[in-house]
């Protein structure tokens, strides 16, 4: 890539006001570094990933409201986690976390377990039990 | 307390930390040089590791390997520490800062508050340097950032004890022995040989063979996985190639920059020619990313679109195969 070809597209980095470093060749074919403000293909890939996550969150939210799953799944998706990551954060086996997705099981969870989840998701127990209290 | 530490921005976190720590200890070693000697370049398709609901593809070696190999090859000794207790991790960090010793840390990205939200994923192999402490704020030199930044002790603890794949467990590292003089020639040759071996490995998911495998898979994805999943997987390939979350892209260019620098040090003009060739291959990777992004932006499920970019990958794989065979010969 030539120095002048280093993309300066508008990207999500712009809002954060930081540029990333790229290696490119100058007029004499010598390697140098240039800051880039972003590249459209990357922005598209990232936007797609974010959109996908938002869809998952929305889907989980609806299922919590329909009492098909517990708020734990909603918060898990909200924090971009999957079962394995959440399980390691709360220090439980994956199958146990999965079981807690069941609203019936969730409603019987001890204060201690609830607190563990609440801490990981950085919410209060009330917010954990009632996702409509979760400000986003 | 603040250590007199100079922050240099880099394209990739691990190279950057090593290069910055080396410069701090009085050795001008560039980021590409660290990457090349550490044999950072790789391609590996890891179907059994799902990242963000898609199979992982990596364009570089496992986290920590670059530093490890670099240190071995230039004769540096590094001390690495991991902790069970966050309080111990904090104590050891503070002790080092008191002794004027900047340390490298492996951290999780999700809770790095200075990153834009969109970039915060559960990726646990990011690297940064802590070079001081001001009351409750740790002074941070994150190599992918333009400027230095800070994290409170609570924020730092969160990222040091992130969970999931590659959980850092408070991992911190710093050189404890650096020879008076370091010679790069032998280290460079070792680094190049290793990269050639990796890229030409007779293993289906690694190196050139790995690229060919992904190319074959891309052809199958739309029929086998459906349009939506195929697009998601494709997006993941581009993101892993280019995004900050995995440490920043452009590895082919960094490697080309390394070859150019190595050519002067080894007095080997062939490497300069090969550097040019690698730059062109880097451009092909970018064209691939561009076309792939167009494909999933339009969301068309046309199989020719997928076949088209699979063809591009196959061409890249063939070119890299030729390239690494030539490179292997060039340093004999």
From TrEMBL, chain A:
<protein>
    <recommendedName>
        <fullName>HTH cro/C1-type domain-containing protein</fullName>
    </recommendedName>
</protein>
<feature type="coiled-coil region">
    <location>
        <begin position="43"/>
        <end position="70"/>
    </location>
</feature>
<keyword id="KW-0175">Coiled coil</keyword>
<feature type="domain" description="HTH cro/C1-type">
    <location>
        <begin position="107"/>
        <end position="128"/>
    </location>
</feature>
<dbReference type="InterPro" id="IPR001387">
    <property type="entry name" value="Cro/C1-type_HTH"/>
</dbReference>
TrEMBL record, chain B:
<dbReference type="Pfam" id="PF14399">
    <property type="entry name" value="BtrH_N"/>
</dbReference>
<feature type="domain" description="DUF4872">
    <location>
        <begin position="154"/>
        <end position="327"/>
    </location>
</feature>
<keyword id="KW-0812">Transmembrane</keyword>
<keyword id="KW-1133">Transmembrane helix</keyword>
<keyword id="KW-0472">Membrane</keyword>
<protein>
    <submittedName>
        <fullName>BtrH N-terminal domain-containing protein</fullName>
    </submittedName>
</protein>
<feature type="domain" description="Butirosin biosynthesis protein H N-terminal">
    <location>
        <begin position="12"/>
        <end position="143"/>
    </location>
</feature>
<dbReference type="Pfam" id="PF16169">
    <property type="entry name" value="DUF4872"/>
</dbReference>
<feature type="transmembrane region" description="Helical">
    <location>
        <begin position="33"/>
        <end position="52"/>
    </location>
</feature>
<dbReference type="InterPro" id="IPR026935">
    <property type="entry name" value="BtrH_N"/>
</dbReference>
<dbReference type="InterPro" id="IPR032369">
    <property type="entry name" value="DUF4872"/>
</dbReference>
């Amino acid at each position: 890539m030539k120095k002048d070809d280093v993309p300066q597209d508008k990207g999500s980095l712009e809002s954060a006001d930081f540029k990333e470093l790229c290696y490119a060749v100058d007029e004499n074919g010598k390697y140098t570094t240039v800051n880039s403000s972003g590249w459209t293909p990357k922005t598209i890939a990232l936007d797609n990933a974010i959109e996908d996550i938002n869809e998952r969150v929305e889907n989980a939210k609806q299922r919590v409201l329909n009492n098909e799953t517990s708020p734990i799944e909603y918060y898990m998706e909200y924090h971009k986690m999957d079962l394995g990551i959440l399980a390691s954060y709360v220090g439980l086996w994956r199958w146990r976390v999965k079981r807690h997705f069941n609203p019936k099981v969730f409603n019987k969870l001890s204060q201690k377990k609830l607190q563990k989840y609440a801490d990981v998701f950085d919410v209060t127990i009330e917010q954990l039990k009632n996702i409509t209290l979760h400000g986003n | 307390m603040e250590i007199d530490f100079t922050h240099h921005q880099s394209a990739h976190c691990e190279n950057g930390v090593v290069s910055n720590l080396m410069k701090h200890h009085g050795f001008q070693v560039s980021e590409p040089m660290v990457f090349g000697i550490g044999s950072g370049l790789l391609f590996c398709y890891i179907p059994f590791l799902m990242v963000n609901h898609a199979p992982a593809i990596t364009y570089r070696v496992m986290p920590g390997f670059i530093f490890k190999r670099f240190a071995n090859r230039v004769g540096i000794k590094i001390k690495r520490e991991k902790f069970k207790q966050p309080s111990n991790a904090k104590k050891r960090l503070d002790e080092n800062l008191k002794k004027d010793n900047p340390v490298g840390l492996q951290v999780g990205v999700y809770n790095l508050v200075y990153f834009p939200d969109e970039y915060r994923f559960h990726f646990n192999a990011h690297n940064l340097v802590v070079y001081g402490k001001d009351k409750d704020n740790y002074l941070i030199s994150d190599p992918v950032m333009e400027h230095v930044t800070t994290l409170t002790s609570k924020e730092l603890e969160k990222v040091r004890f992130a969970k999931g794949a590659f959980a850092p467990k408070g991992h911190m590292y710093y050189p404890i022995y650096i020879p008076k003089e370091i010679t790069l020639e032998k280290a460079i040759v070792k680094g190049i040989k290793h990269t050639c071996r990796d890229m030409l490995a007779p293993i289906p998911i690694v190196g050139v063979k790995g690229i060919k495998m992904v190319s074959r898979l891309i052809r199958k994805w739309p029929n086998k996985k459906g349009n939506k999943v195929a697009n998601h997987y494709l997006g993941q390939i581009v993101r892993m190639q280019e995004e900050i979350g995995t440490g920043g892209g452009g590895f082919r260019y960094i490697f080309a920059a390394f070859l150019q620098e190595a050519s002067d040090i080894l007095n080997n003009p062939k490497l300069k020619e090969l550097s040019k060739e690698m730059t062109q291959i880097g451009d092909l990777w970018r064209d691939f990313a561009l076309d792939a992004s167009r494909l999933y932006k339009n969301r068309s499920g046309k199989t020719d679109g997928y076949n088209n970019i699979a063809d591009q990958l196959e061409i890249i794989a063939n070119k890299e195969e030729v390239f690494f065979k030539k490179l292997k010969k060039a340093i004999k």
